[in-house]
Each structure stands twice: as C-alpha cells, then as structure tokens.
Amino acid sequence: MAHFSTPDAPRFSVEVYQNEYLPEGGREVNAIITVTSSGGGAAGGPPIPAPAAAPEAYDGVPGVYDGVPGGGVPGGASARAAVVIMVDCSGSMDYPPTKMRHAREATAAAIDTVRDGVAFSVVAGTHKAVEVFPGNGRLAIADPLTRAQAKEALRSLSPGGGTAIGTWLLLADLLLGSADATIRHGILLTDGRNEHEEPQRLRAVLDACAGRFTCDARGVGTDWEVEEVTGIASALLGTADIVADPAGLSADFTRMMETAMGKEIADVSLRLWTPKDAEVAYVKQVAPTVEDLSARRVEAGPRAGDYPTGSWGDESRDYHLCVRVPAAEVGQEMLAARISLVQPPPDGAGSPPSPLAQGLIRAVWTADLAVSTAMNPQVAHYTGQAELAQVIQQGMNARKSGDAEQATAKLGRAVQLATASGNEDTAKLLAKVVDVLDVAAGTVRLKAKVAEADEMTLETRSTKTVRVKK
C-alpha cells in the first residue's frame, strides 16, 4: 500500500488485491484496486466577487441569452466549491400538483445544506433553462442571507413547458465555469422524458460537459426514462437514483448535497502504466457502483493512460483492472502494471502531476496449478457483482420484450449472484419482480403484476454493489 498527501487535501491510499501467479504461457492478470481518501478539510473558501450582469435566460445556443447575441457568464472569480441545482419545471410537474411542492421543499432543503462560502445557483428547467437565483449569470455565495433569499426565490417555480435537459446542463456548465472553483457539481431533478431534444443533442452536451463538472441525477415518479437519467450520471461521474414518492425528495436532496459538500479534491484520474507489448483489457469501477471506464482512457505518455474518477471526499472505491501481458515461462516474473492516482498540476500545462498514491500489479509464472488457478476473493467477488448488474439489465430487457424464458433465466441467475455475494438490497428488489422458488438453483417465476416503481427501482439500482465480506 502506498499513500501520499498534499497540504489541505485528502490523504490517498491504494491497496492491491490479486493472485499474481499465472500458469506457464498465461497472459491475463486481474487485480482489484481499493482507493481510499481521508482527512480532507471542509469545502468552501473565500467569498466570490459578484461578476457583471448578464441576461437571465439561456436558450441553449452558445453565446445567446433570450435571443440576444453576445451574452455570457463573466469569469475570474474563485472559490473552492460551486454547485448548481437544476429543477424540472415542465408541465408534467403539475401532475399531481404536490410534486412541484415537494420539489420546492427538496430544493430548499438542499440550499440549507450548502456550506458558507460555497458558490451556488438554482436553475428552472423546461424547454429552456432559466436562472431562478441569483440571476444575471451569477453565482451567489452561501451565507444565511443568500440562503434565505434563494429559498424565497423558489416561490417562482411553477410547472409549464417542455423538457430539454441538455439545455439545463449547458447553463449549469456556464454558471459553474464562471467561478474558478475547485469542486464543480450539479444536482438534476427530472420527472419526465427528454421529449423536446433529440437524443444525439443530449449526448453531445454530455460529451462537452464531461470532465468539467460532476452531476447527480434523480428521477421523481415513474414517467422518466431510466437510461436517460443513469446516462447523465454515468457521463458526468455522478450518482443516479429513483425517488418514486415525491415526498421523499427532501431527504434525498439533503443527502446528495451533504455528499457534494464533502468533496475536497477534483479531477482525479487513475493512471495505468503497462510494460511493452502489454495491453489493457478493461478498467472498471466496481464499488460502490459498476461503471466501465475503459472507453474514457486519455493517453498520458508512453504506455500510460488516464481514466477519470471525478471528485473525492472521505470515501473508498474499488476498481477492477484486467491487463494482458506477454506470455512467459515458469520462474519468470514482471511488473504487469503500475497504478497511480494523479491530479492536474495547479499551474496548468508544463508541470507533470505528482502522484497522490501508487500501487503495483505483478505477474509471476508458476508450474503449481493449484496456486495459479486460485482466484483472489476480491477479484471473484467483483466479477460476480459485474455479472449481477449485467444479468439484471438483460433480464429486465427480456421481460419488457415479452421473452419470458430469457427473463426468467437471467433474473434467476441474478437471484443466485445477489444472495451468494450478500447483496441484500438487490435481492430484495429482485423479490419484487420475481417469485423466488429456489435461491441456490436460481429458480424463479416472473410475477404476473409488477409495480412500475419497483421495476424502475431495480433497473436504476442494478449497478449498486456490496463489498467483500470480511
């Protein structure tokens, strides 16, 4: 285990779990990397000077506010953290009318959780994005007065109009970019489908915003698309969840904001170096959720690549790395990969990043088959957790398409995996979709009637994992 720290930053550590022994000619090396950060200070920082005024509504066209060319959000301010809350105010938020009231109350609860000195803003999202507070392209600095003013401004939130989530995210990006904040975070609430925007436009917006800020996404009720909400969170390295009952929004928003306020270091990447003729098969986050990072690799010098991990507070995450090395004979050993946690240098380009933590992955070839075929418990556990997430999605897709046989087989396998790994939360969600006849054999029967909220909850939370039992 290796660990490093910098002044006023969390202390990072890396632990490597693997079976380094391979049979003669073996090539595939698997390892679980546990990354832990601890000891950070409080998010916040000095007040941000108020920038010059800019018009209030953004229609999704770069540089155009309310159709007036040349608008923009002034920059130059600095803070340690900035957050934008995006609230769906489309017409569907009026059905039932209590949904909008709960959304206001939840936003107020989140505002109460913003720490003093943090820059923040509230955006109303429909087929356009409008700043509710403080307006004029500015971010407010959290203190008792601005929090009270922001909550008063929430009275203006009323349902009406369509849904264009990409436009909300673009405005959030502009607002967050107006302050030189270390931590940039968004919270997004929607109750419906992104009907006033082409899917490719939302995808392009997510690609543009990736790496600029993180975002937690929530779907309230049951009229939204699971793939849209989880896709937003995945692209922006945040969390996704369902709040089936709007009455639960305040508690969920409070938890989200508390977590956001605990983030202390941003733009951390997992750097993977491999030797000559080795290749990376995949890099996945496997706890607290499954997230494949393989396609997000950014080259970082000879035989090295960076995989984004987003912002960190006091927390621990697990990653599964699979590397294919050149085959070798019994008795040989090699460094299969070197893991580093890195962050861009504060002075920008020109300075190599200092490692926040490092770990080594080895490969040793042996003739002892009992040793080389033994799977490390951590690797075995997370291989099962990744399969669990996959078979749940496959089973639910088959159920929707009317393929009962495939759905039964896949969800039965999911019951097996969830039970064997101790993933009790997922097992309980599965039990709302299938009748479990034999846990060990994975024998289940599809329920004739399943509440839509239960179905969506299983899909949304299918990637949540549990750690290895100690």
**Count of DSSP-assigned helices:** 11
Question: How many angstroms separate the termini?
Answer: 18 Å
Uncertain runs: 1-7, 41-77
Biggest beta-sheet profile: 8 strands, mixed
What's the total number of strands?
24
Averaged pLDDT: 90
Shape: globular
**Beta-strand level of the residues, as a percent range?**
25-35%
Helix content: 25-40%
Q: Compute the gyration radius: what is it?
A: 24 Å
Query: Which structural class fits the helix and strand makeup?
Result: alpha+beta
Characterise this structure:
The chain is of the alpha+beta class and 470 residues long. The protein has 11 helices and 24 strands. Strands 5, 8, 9, 10, 11, 12, 13 and 14 form an 8-stranded mixed beta sheet that branches. It has a 6-stranded antiparallel beta sheet with strand order 1-2-4-20-16-17, with helices on one face. Helix 5 (226-235) links the parallel strand 13 (214-220) and strand 14. Helix 1 (98-113) runs parallel beside helix 6 (249-261), helix 8 runs antiparallel to helix 9 and helix 9 (404-421) packs antiparallel against helix 10 (424-430). The relative contact order is 0.14. The model is unreliable at 1-7 and 41-77 (pLDDT under 50).
Per-chain topology:
Blueprint: E1 2-4, E2 11-18, E3 21-23, E4 28-38, E5 57-58, E6 64-65, E7 68-69, E8 77-88, H1 98-113, E9 119-125, E10 129-133, E11 140-141, H2 144-153, H3 165-177, E12 179-190, H4 199-209, E13 214-220, H5 226-235, E14 240-243, H6 249-261, E15 265-273, E16 279-287, E17 291-292, E18 298-299, E19 304-312, E20 315-324, E21 333-342, E22 355-366, H7 369-372, H8 377-401, H9 404-421, H10 424-430, E23 434-438, E24 443-446, H11 452-460
